[in-house]
Design brief:
Elements lengths: L1 H22 L1 H12 L9 H8 L2 E7 L2 E8 L5 E5 L10 H9 L3 E5 L14 H15 L3 E5 L1 H13 L6 E5 L5 H12 L3 H15 L8 H4 L6 E7 L7 H10 L3 E6 L9 H11 L7 E2 L1
Parallel strand pairs: 3-4, 3-5, 5-6, 6-7, 7-8, 8-9
Antiparallel strand pairs: 1-2, 2-4
Helix pairs in contact: 1-2, 2-8, 4-11, 5-6
Length: 287
């Protein structure tokens, strides 16, 4: 019954967009984009509060949002952690434990609409600008990102090429905005007239076509050392996304897993990430 109700709600969005576009393409596009970028989960849960409150650092004003940052002190290289869609900094707790045991200094933050940060919507350019401000504020040496966060850090490097960043890690990350949009269209059920209006709005707002938002294109000019991790059975971000990015990222390594899921919290994977940061040999096949 719950799934049926959810399907009816999604279909009602599609019918609304299909009707609205007949009267105003622009209004239809804006509304479709707002629904697409709406964050529905990822706020701090009661079970997460104690952990996060203990490591709060400061709040930064970025792109009209109050962004909550976190810090774990250490004497070695500074690491920036970037979470994914509808998540928050709590998702890093297992990796943070290993990083701090190695005496790395760790920085993290909640994206707009997530965790303790303000807002209710998130899109790739906004996340990228938040990452840039965090980089300028904290000067990390390496960046580790999960899911949508991985796409954001690669777009950030494409735009800014921050020289202080040496190594980048993406975990279970999508690559193509086009694929995300195709999934959204099928999920909601809006027609190609709405899709075209959406694409035109994206170009008008960001001066880029939908197909330009592509991690496999972003990394063509990326000179940093990269590590990608992805599970072959990932149902949220397709495995082929990281395969393609790895093929186009000249200085990257790729860890393949099977049955590890999308979150990839496993200790053995965190060990490989730390080995990569330390320039030690890594195991690349967990299938």
């Amino acid at each position: 019954m719950k799934n049926l109700f959810k399907k009816l709600i999604l279909n009602s969005y599609g019918r609304y967009f299909n009707t609205l576009v007949l009267f105003s393409k622009r209004k239809s596009a804006i509304t479709t984009f707002q629904v697409f970028s709406k964050v529905r989960k990822g706020r701090v849960l009661p079970s997460q509060k104690k952990y996060l409150d203990a490591v709060k650092d400061t709040t930064l004003r970025i792109e009209d949002h109050d962004i909550q940052t976190y810090k774990w002190n250490g004497t070695k290289d500074r690491i920036l952690l970037v979470h994914g869609w509808e998540s928050n900094t709590f998702r890093w707790r297992n990796l943070v434990e290993k990083l701090t045991a190695e005496n790395y200094e760790v920085i993290a933050f909640d994206a707009p609409g997530h965790g303790y940060s303000s807002g209710s919507n998130l899109h790739l350019p906004l996340y990228t600008e938040c990452i840039q401000k965090i980089i300028e504020t904290y000067s990390p040496k390496h960046i580790i990102a999960h899911s949508f966060g991985g796409m954001a850090i690669l777009f950030n490097d494409y735009l800014y090429q921050n020289d202080g960043i040496e190594k980048m890690v993406t975990i279970g990350s999508p690559s193509e905005f086009r694929e995300l949009l195709d999934h959204y269209q099928k999920l909601i059920g809006f027609n190609n007239r709405v899709l075209k209006a959406f694409e035109n709005y994206v170009y008008e707002r960001f001066q880029k076509n939908v197909d330009d938002f592509s991690s496999s294109k972003f990394v063509l000019s990326n000179q940093k050392e990269g590590l990608l991790l992805h599970d072959q059975l990932d149902v949220l971000a397709p495995f082929h996304a990281s395969e393609k990015v790895h093929a186009d990222w000249k200085n990257s390594k790729f860890i393949k897993t099977k049955g590890f899921g999308h979150s990839m919290h496993q200790p053995e994977l965190n060990d490989q990430i730390i080995a990569f940061l330390k320039s030690e040999p890594i195991k690349t096949d967990f299938t």
